[in-house]
Amino acid sequence: MKVRMKYFSAARRLSTVGLFLALAGCHPAPLVVPSYIQTVGVELAQNMTSYFGLDTLMTQNIIQQFQIDGRLPIDDPEKSDMTVRVIIRKYTEDPMFYDLKTNNVLQYRITIVYDLASLDKREKKTFLEDKETNHSVFYYTPDYTGAITETKDQALARLAQDTARAI
Q: Of 4, 140, 158, 163, which is the most exposed, with the fewest CB atoms less than 10 Å away?
C-alpha cells in the first residue's frame, strides 16, 4: 500500500511539473503587422444596409476585441499608425426551420456581408483588404422547444462579437 501511494504521489508531482512546463510556452499569436505600427484606430463601421444600429454594434465590438487582445493600443483613427475600416454591405435574416403544425419559424440565420480594410497610414498603403466576407449565426425562436432560444437582438450581439473576433 505504501509503495502504491509513493508512485501515485510521484506521478502527481510529475504531471504538475508537466502542466507548468506546458503553460510556460503559452503566449499570444505573433503579430503579423510591421514593427513600426504601434497603435490601431477603428473607424466607425459604414452601414450600407437598411438595418439600423449595425454600424455602432460592429464598431464597439471591434474596439473591444482589440482591447481584449491588448497587443496594439487603440488610438483615434486620425492619429493611429493603422486604421481598420469595415463597410457592411448586406444584412439578411433567413428562416431556416419551420414548425410543421403551426408553420411558425423555429430557426433563423442572420448573415452580414462586409468589406474589411486595414490601412497602413505611415506607408500610405493598404495593409490588408478583404471584400465580400460573410459571417452568419443561427438562433432558435422561443417557439422551439428543446433548444436554447435567443432573441433577435441577442443573436445580433453574438454575430457582431463573432465577426469582430474574426477581424
A: 4
